[in-house]
Specification:
Length: about 230
């Protein structure tokens, strides 16, 4: 879910609610208690259901695809992809996932999803070879990096020619600013801003995708951008 981020808190009382430019303090924000609070928060809005709905109905996954969940958190996207692969009886699909928070990775492991290559890593310095993945998915991660262009360039390096990336992004609204402030005070982007940044990072054929009608409320919360 998260990568190295910026923005200094004003005093010690802010450290647990503000991501700062130090990996240790990122871990303080998303320690075991912080991960539990965040999981409860997203479950309250039925976000895992909406992600599964989108993956099942809108995301194309094929036999032998290699899939990377960038900033996986406790595994909402990876679990949806895993279940989609099982449901469609696809063969040869390889899943990988990374996050910078060890406590998030511990929460991920509790789901006991077999066969996923799970690593602790910063998005800026990924341990994967060039052109490794057919599909990259990322949710609630890019809002937390100080240099989003660098993060996207790092992800693009790992994407195969012709591969696709799906970015799940919170809308840039006052309501979201308020709701997410306890979780590191992330920086949200407008759809136009994100599209421009993706283009600057070398992605092409960007287009907005919407959650299915059965998960309509998440189109109010945010948006999905598909890029290749």
């Amino acid at each position: 879910m998260f990568a190295r981020s910026g923005g200094l808190g004003r005093d010690n009382s802010m450290r647990r609610t503000t991501i700062v430019n130090d990996e240790t303090e990122i871990h303080e924000v998303y320690d075991e208690d912080g991960c539990v609070r965040y999981e409860s928060f997203v479950n309250f809005f039925f976000y895992p259901y909406g992600i599964r709905d989108f993956v099942f109905k809108r995301m194309r996954i094929e036999d032998n695809d290699r899939v990377l969940d960038a900033g996986c958190g406790f595994g909402v996207l990876s679990r949806a992809v895993h279940h989609s692969v099982e449901r469609r009886a696809l063969s040869g699909v390889e899943q990988s996932a990374f996050d910078i928070s060890p406590d998030m990775l511990s929460a991920f492991r509790k789901m006991r999803l077999d066969g996923i290559d799970l690593r602790q890593s910063d998005v800026i310095d990924l341990p994967y070879s060039d052109a490794s993945f057919d599909l990259i998915v990322t949710s609630a991660m890019l809002e937390h990096v100080p240099e989003i262009e660098g993060a996207l360039a790092s992800l693009k390096r790992c994407l195969k020619p012709g591969g696709k990336m799906y970015v799940f992004m919170s809308r840039k609204t006052r309501v979201n600013d308020f709701l997410f402030r306890p979780f590191g005070d992330p920086k949200c982007y407008s759809l136009e801003e994100l599209t421009d940044i993706l283009a600057s990072a070398g992605f092409k054929n960007t287009r907005r995708r919407r959650f299915p009608l059965s998960s309509f409320w998440l189109n109010i919360w945010g948006y999905v951008v598909e890029a290749s």
